[in-house]
């Protein structure tokens, strides 16, 4: 590589996204006091650009505008330019995305916002092309117009920014109305189910036409709805919707059939042509959903998809110290000699490539059949490529194929006169061969930032899959990642979580000069992960840490006036708004997950004020839950758990005893959304016994492993049979 002509302050940052822009001719600053002071001192508008390192359109805008010396000169002359990695600073991103969505009706990344020197927004958008076109004003024009307006009409812009801020403050406020109580769960659950049913695509699954996102929150809601209505037609419909969606996703091009794992979303209705980046938060949540699908259906298909997701994360998104990286990019160089990256280049195939890699004749098949013929038929490969030109605006996928399962094993086997079992082995051989060939291609960029919240989601993925599939190796990987968090992303002196750390030189783990403190989502997803890890390992240390973090979360983020938790803590003068997210999207919102966390925490500690807090969150979001629960399916699910009361499943036994292991396997193999598992080993000095004195009264019956089903610390008659226990766990 040539020596860069420009270097700006971002060269001193750790974020891979900020480092990508360190050699732009733009005089970028990171978010911080130095930039704010310069804007005030020089009376300049701030141009804020927010994105993330695996964002396709962020790369496009950088190539077209931020690498342009001419546009860079305009930016440097008229503005103080700030770059923010939205994954490092979700608080900054949310404040200004709230503004962009409110003023433009849409949002996305890269996000481009112009601020007064005191950080109030007055203009904004997302991606801008560099020059004016038929339908869009170019970035250069926007920059010059705003610079001119600031010179001529500064007072009007300042007044406008103040009005905008007041309006945002008013519209974004979420608080309890008067004496409101938690909404009734039946109405919330039924309305959410009806709204999802209305949006459901009966042919291809999912809940929109296009683009289609995996949205695990919807699928988890449907599983819970089924569990509470399993004898009704609506319950059966909910289950069918969830399982069909999961099958269509796993057959589609959104799933990487060669390298495993899921891409971020599909650009079409059929789950065929994806946006090729892979995000850690998707893998963590989908590992849980596919494991639950296996628990419910017993179909190994779902278990195998969960295993493949965890294989991908273990191989490609794992740091040797135990943490998980954030993402892989959509764009890469097609060959080692290519000058330009293309979206999907690492993942797509021409028919000629496949025929050359799979030339072997297939014994026993119709005459002349090669492995390539069988593979191409099964995965919908066409000689001229199988991508709709309408889904390929830049012609990057012309003549290429995105693999998608077009036939069942039985149909493909019948087409070539093969036994389905043999066909399965042949397709596996083909996939292995293509994996080896693909390994020779230049890999996409890896975002090796490690985020606490997303690591929490992935720990839950490994822990829950390990328990449901009885795979101890996954549970051990979850424990290794939790230990990583404790070492690198937790400050024992203050008892607080940090937001992020980074892969450094020689594969060391590095931290920023001034570490970013954890946000609400970091606490919530880690607490959830630690509860999941306790249930999978029965190691009480994880429980103890979870309860400590829950107390810290209450202290830093709870809103005692309006109820529920703020996304960020108080005291940062650069944050104009403290927000409470009100939408479960690609990730569940933190307040949704924390309702269930609080109920679990109360079960493990006996602190009933946490149950009260859970009810207060539901009361604060009551209006939204009753009108549009489809925007909060995870919180709608939690409403049912709140009103049902969690079942405490207590197993008394010898941890090494076969009868104990059988009981635990029974608990892990049943999907029961309103249970918590705890293990009473008879050690009255242990953490759990100190928290819950009632455990001392429970004992083994006839010397055998014994299960008790308790509610509010009052227990049923003991059972010693796994079959009886299974019956008790099913609502």
UniProtKB/TrEMBL annotation:
It holds the Pfam family Thioredox_DsbH. SUPFAM superfamilies: Six-hairpin glycosidases, Thioredoxin-like. This is SPT20 protein. Residues 7-168 form the Spermatogenesis-associated protein 20-like TRX domain. GO terms for biological process: carbohydrate metabolic process. InterPro entries: 6-hairpin_glycosidase_sf, 6hp_glycosidase-like_sf, Ssp411, Ssp411-like_TRX, Thioredoxin-like_sf.
């Amino acid at each position: 590589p040539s020596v860069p002509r420009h270097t700006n302050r971002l060269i001193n940052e750790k974020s891979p996204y900020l480092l990508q822009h360190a050699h732009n001719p733009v005089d970028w600053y990171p978010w911080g006091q130095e930039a704010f002071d310069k804007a005030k001192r020089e009376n300049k508008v701030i141009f804020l650009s927010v994105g993330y390192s695996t964002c396709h359109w962020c790369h496009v805008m950088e190539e077209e505008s931020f690498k342009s010396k001419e546009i860079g000169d305009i930016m440097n002359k008229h503005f103080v330019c700030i770059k923010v990695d939205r994954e490092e600073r979700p608080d900054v991103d949310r404040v200004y995305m709230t503004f962009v969505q409110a003023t433009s009706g849409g949002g996305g990344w890269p996000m481009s916002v112009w601020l007064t020197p005191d950080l109030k927004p007055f203009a904004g958008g997302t991606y801008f092309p560099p020059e004016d076109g038929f339908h869009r004003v170019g970035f250069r024009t926007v920059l010059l117009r705003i610079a001119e307006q600031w010179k001529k009409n500064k007072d009007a812009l300042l007044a406008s920014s103040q009005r905008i801020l007041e309006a945002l403050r008013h519209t974004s406020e979420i608080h309890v109305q008067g004496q409101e109580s938690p909404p009734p769960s039946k109405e919330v659950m039924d309305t959410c189910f009806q709204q999802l049913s209305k949006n459901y695509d009966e042919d291809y699954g999912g809940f929109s036409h296009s683009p289609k996102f995996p949205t695990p929150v919807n699928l988890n809601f449907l599983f819970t709805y089924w569990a509470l209505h399993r004898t009704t037609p609506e319950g059966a419909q909910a289950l069918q919707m969830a399982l069909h969606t999961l099958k269509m996703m796993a057959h589609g091009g959104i799933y990487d059939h060669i390298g495993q794992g899921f891409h971020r979303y599909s650009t079409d209705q059929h789950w065929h042509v994806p946006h090729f980046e892979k995000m850690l938060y998707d893998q963590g949540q989908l590992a849980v959903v596919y494991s639950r699908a296996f628990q419910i259906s017993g179909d190994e298909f779902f278990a195998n998809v969960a295993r493949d997701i965890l294989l991908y994360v273990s191989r490609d998104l794992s740091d040797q110290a135990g943490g998980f990286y954030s993402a892989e990019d959509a764009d890469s160089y097609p060959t080692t000699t290519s000058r330009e990256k293309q979206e999907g280049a690492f993942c797509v195939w021409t028919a000629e490539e496949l025929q050359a890699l799979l030339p072997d004749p297939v014994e026993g098949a119709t005459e002349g059949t090669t492995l390539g013929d069988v593979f191409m038929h099964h995965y919908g490969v066409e000689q001229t490529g199988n991508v709709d030109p309408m889904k390929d605006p830049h012609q990057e996928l012309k003549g290429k194929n995105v693999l998608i399962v077009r036939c069942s094993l039985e149909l493909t086997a019948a087409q070539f006169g093969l036994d389905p079992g043999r066909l399965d082995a042949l397709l596996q051989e083909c996939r292995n061969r293509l994996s080896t060939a693909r390994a020779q291609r230049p890999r996409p960029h890896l975002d090796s930032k490690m985020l606490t919240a997303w690591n929490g989601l992935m720990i839950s993925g490994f822990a829950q899959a390990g328990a449901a599939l009885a795979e101890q190796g996954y549970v051990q990987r979850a424990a290794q990642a939790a230990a990583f968090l404790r070492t690198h992303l937790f400050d024992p002196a203050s008892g607080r979580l940090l937001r992020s750390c980074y892969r450094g030189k020689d594969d060391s783990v590095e931290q920023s000069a001034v570490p970013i403190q954890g946000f609400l989502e970091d606490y919530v997803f880690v607490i959830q992960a630690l509860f999941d890890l306790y249930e999978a390992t029965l190691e009480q240390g994880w429980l103890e840490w979870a309860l400590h973090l829950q107390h810290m979360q209450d202290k830093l983020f709870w809103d005692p006036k309006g109820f529920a938790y703020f996304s960020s803590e108080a005291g940062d003068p650069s944050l104009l708004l403290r927000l409470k997210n009100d939408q479960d999207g690609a990730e569940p919102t933190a307040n949704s997950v924390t309702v269930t966390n609080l109920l679990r925490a109360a079960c493990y500690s006996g602190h009933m004020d946490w149950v009260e807090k859970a009810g207060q969150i539901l009361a604060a979001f009551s209006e939204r839950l009753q009108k549009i629960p489809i925007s909060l399916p995870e919180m709608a699910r939690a409403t049912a758990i709140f009103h049902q009361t969690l079942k405490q499943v207590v197993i008394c036994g010898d941890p090494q005893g076969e009868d104990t292991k059988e009981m635990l396997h029974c608990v892990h193999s049943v999907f029961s959304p309103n249970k918590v598992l705890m293990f009473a080993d008879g050690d009255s000095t242990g953490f759990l016994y100190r928290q819950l004195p009632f455990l001392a009264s429970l004992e083994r019956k006839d010397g055998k492993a014994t299960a008790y089903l308790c509610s509010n610390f009052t227990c049923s008659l003991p059972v010693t049979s796994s079959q009886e226990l299974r019956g008790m766990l099913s609502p």
